[in-house]
Amino acid sequence: MDYQERIGNEWSERANELTQWTFTHLVNRTDAWGRYHRRKGDDTTFAVTAPLRDERGKSFLDVDSLRKHYRRCQPSGQLGLHSASSDLTSRWLAIDIDLHDEESTATREGNLFAAKRWRQRLADLELDPILMDSNGIGGFHILVVFSEPLSTLSVHDFAARFVGELRKPRPGSSAGDFSEQTKLGSLRRLATSAGPRSFASAFHSGLER
């Protein structure tokens, strides 16, 4: 059994626990979510809003769909969650430190250094940030989960100020788009055993040197 297969099996074995935790702490709305697809021959995926327009209000995100996501070993068909509920509250905030192009002048090492610095600044504010790889080539996500839903606008204001104070070293960072107009907010792919480039999501404990 190779490394990727072993990791995939571990995610699948914990799918029920991951599903329950996700539904309780991350799902802001069940009437709209993201689904990722990959065209034949492509290395990366693209997201569409689910369900299709004609099915909205009839089809809803449920635990079975989330369980399938955590058991899936291919990037296509994976799920993403919106950052805002229909009444503009948010259970979490996510900060991106992007590196989409392997030829970029940014480096994985530089991004990881910045991500760890940002995580520590959030921890100093008595938050409990989770740092994870986002694409396997040097992009990172920092996720902060709240104990209860907060106003999306207040979350956005906090994230914008936080990123604004620290973005000089990493101009490619963002706190996402919590748009009032769409009332969906930004879309975030759920972590999984097979990310957008067929890599297993890696989490950083904070104990690394």
Task: Give a written overview of the molecule.
There is one protein chain. The chain has 209 residues and is α+β, with helices and mostly antiparallel strands. The protein has one domain (3-204): DNA primase, PRIM domain (Alpha-Beta Complex). It is built from five helices and nine strands. The chain has helices at 3-13, 15-25, 63-71, 108-124, 152-166, and strands spanning 33-37, 46-50, 79-82, 89-97, 130-133, 140-151, 173-174, 187-189, 203-204. A five-stranded antiparallel sheet has the order 7-4-6-5-9. Strands 2-1-3-8 form a four-stranded antiparallel sheet, with helices on one face. Strand 5 (130-133) and strand 6 form a beta hairpin. The chain is globular and about 40 Å long. Residues 177-182 have low confidence and may be disordered.
Provide the fold topology.
Blueprint: H1 3-13, H2 15-25, E1 33-37, E2 46-50, H3 63-71, E3 79-82, E4 89-97, H4 108-124, E5 130-133, E6 140-151, H5 152-166, E7 173-174, E8 187-189, E9 203-204
Antiparallel strand pairs: 1-2, 1-3, 3-8, 4-6, 4-7, 5-6, 5-9
Helix pairs in contact: 2-3
